[in-house]
Protein: Glutamyl-tRNA(Gln) amidotransferase subunit A
Organism: Ruegeria atlantica
Amino acid sequence: TESCLKAIDDADALNAFVHKTPEIALERAKAADERIKAGDAPSMCGLPIGIKDLFCTKGVPSQAASKILEGFKPEYESTVSQQLADSGAVMLGKLNMDEFAMGSSNETSVYGNAVSPWRRGNDDAQLTPGGSSGGSASAVAADLCLAATGTDTGGSIRQPAAFVGITGIKPTYGRCSRWGIVAFASSLDQAGPMTKNVRDAAIMLETMCGHDPKDSTSTELAVPNFEAMLTGDIKGKKIGIPKEYRMEGMPAEIEKLWAEGAEMLKAAGAEIVDISLPHTKYALPAYYVIAPAEASSNLARYDGVRYGRRAQLAQGDGITEMYEKTRAEGFGHEVQRRVMIGTYVLSAGFYDAYYNRARKVRTLIKKDFEDVFAAGIDAILTPATPSASFGLGEMTEADPVQMYLNDVFTVTVNLAGLPGISVPAGLDQQGLPLGLQLIGRPWEEGDLLNTAYALE
Ligand code: GLN
């Protein structure tokens, strides 16, 4: 813990930790020492980790990287961070992210972007660690902590993990409680671990899972011992390669790593099968209707009364001005854009044309996956991202759609509620990490982790 706290102080330039909690960390580390001495050491005992700023942590600023939550210190702890603390994990602080988890580069954060520890060859230009869990990715990759929590609504664990060469898993929707995690799009949001390798992910995920009466969508299924399932034996497993993920203009090196990944799994005894997920091309537009729709509803609660910050009011301002000024000042541009899109697609005149249609598309996408699993496919292998990490400022706000394209391989998994994992696959010609994604059957994270283990 002490060496991580020092590393964090020395790495301020990465802007990964936005609230440091050294007192809490040292206190928890001491308590962990005592537990270890007493022979009562659960799996995460004494392990220093970072917590994404989207998780409410009792008495510690939890701002979802937004100005509107300035000054908000929750009275309660999210279920997942509580489970980690109960398992002896030591929270070092809160990690940077895109505002309300909306983004793919960490550039929408009120704290300014986190920076990747990686560079392109000899070029000094700063690169994005991805988003929205960019602080988590940067911190784990730069050895500021052993692991971190992330959340994934459309790729926010898997894309940043791929950009910095670490492992990140989004479990099946309902595996982890969402209670106490600031809501973005409630039917898509899931928490998950971001770690240095698959074994760490298995250990940490087990701690984060479990039924929670405070989240009606959390499953009552028992939590398996994921680590015990890492045998590396994938003989006879059928791995699907979906042809729709072979996008036009995809860099040749990503194609190459994808083929190499398939070869590795084949060498380990798996059977590689060409498959089709015909509705893939509608996933991104459906996601960018459904996610903003849910966000516009979830973010209605930030009204200047219940949480965080209220704008300075002028003489004579009424409640309407208070709402307007608070929300205009408190939300950044991307969040405002999402709220506007969401409100539009839910409005009476457009509900059927956009929101309802997107929901139907979502059902078709889910069915694509159900069909291939029913045909005997155990896991699906795809690239995690359509490119390696890019330079900060390179994909500016002027073209939000360009940024949204980053999620092309990851959003299908959230729409279908499936588990997905990103594992480091190698480096591109400029020396930057690329990731491969494995998508598994619902509730079979253990199997998925084991397949990823064979790919590691
Ligand atoms: N990049 C996607 C978005 O901006 C995904 C974000 C996420 O998974 N939280 O919505």
Observations:
- The mean pLDDT is 97.
- The pocket of glutamine is lined by residues 101-104, 132, 152-156, 184, 291, 407 (CB under 6 Å).
- The chain has 14 helices and eleven strands.
- Residues 351-374 form the longest helix (24 residues).
